[in-house]
Design brief:
The protein is an alpha/beta fold. It contains ten helices and five strands, in the order ααβαβαβαααααββα. It has two domains: 29 residues, no CATH class; 174 residues, Beta-carbonic Anhydrase, Chain A. The mean pLDDT is 93.
């Protein structure tokens, strides 16, 4: 794509919004009050607003390779803190997708340089669920299941944070795990049981 096309697209987009609402950008500039923090994958095919069918201002979005929430990553930890403490979001969504390149790379025994420490987090998910995954004979199904298990484990990492635990106790914030199916466009709810996970980790991870 020619970069100049992006600016032409931008001008067209501005006109489309103003036709619907002459005050659209004035209202957008007043501030944000999203109810959702969306943590997703950086994959160029998976855009948060499009797959949820929402407008700018309705979700606070953080994306990285394979929708990870490692506690050592100050970026994602800062995003969670800002969304929970300052924006007061009511829902946190971790959304993975089938066909994730990061998850696929983590399934392979290969030196990928700078990506190694990042992918190790996904390999740890594989290790935790090794018995289930090694019992699956079809490689494609194993791949899809690891995508789901990675989302589940990242939801647990979200729940381990002090900000989320405090928000749950004070106002009932909820954490959700979703998977986006690129082949069908379907958004799948993994039905993460927040309270069950919370109770299961409290002995070691109680922070509030």
């Amino acid at each position: 794509m020619e970069l100049k096309q992006i600016f032409e697209n931008n001008r067209d987009w501005i006109q489309e919004k103003l036709k619907l609402d002459k005050d659209y950008f004035m209202n957008l500039a007043k501030g944000q009050n999203p109810d959702i923090l969306y943590i997703g994958c950086s994959d160029s095919r998976v855009t948060a607003e499009d797959l949820m069918g929402i407008q700018p201002g309705e979700a606070f979005v953080h994306r990285n390779i394979a929708n990870m929430v490692p506690n050592t990553d100050l970026n994602v930890m800062s995003v969670i803190n800002y969304a929970v403490v300052h924006l007061q979001v009511g829902h946190i969504v971790v959304c993975g997708h089938y066909g994730c390149g990061g998850v696929k790379a983590a399934m392979q025994s290969a030196d990928l340089g700078l990506l190694n420490p990042w992918l190790r987090n996904i390999r740890d998910v594989y290790r935790i669920h090794r018995e289930e995954l090694q019992g699956m004979e079809v490689e494609g199904e194993k791949y899809k299941r690891l995508v789901e298990l990675n989302v589940q484990e990242q939801c647990i990492n979200v729940i381990k944070t002090a900000d989320v635990q405090k928000a749950y106790n004070s106002r009932g914030i909820q954490v959700h795990g979703w998977v986006f199916d690129l082949q069908t466009g379907e958004l799948i709810d993994l039905k993460i049981d927040f309270e069950k996970i919370l109770q299961g980790i409290m002995e070691l991870y109680r922070l509030s």
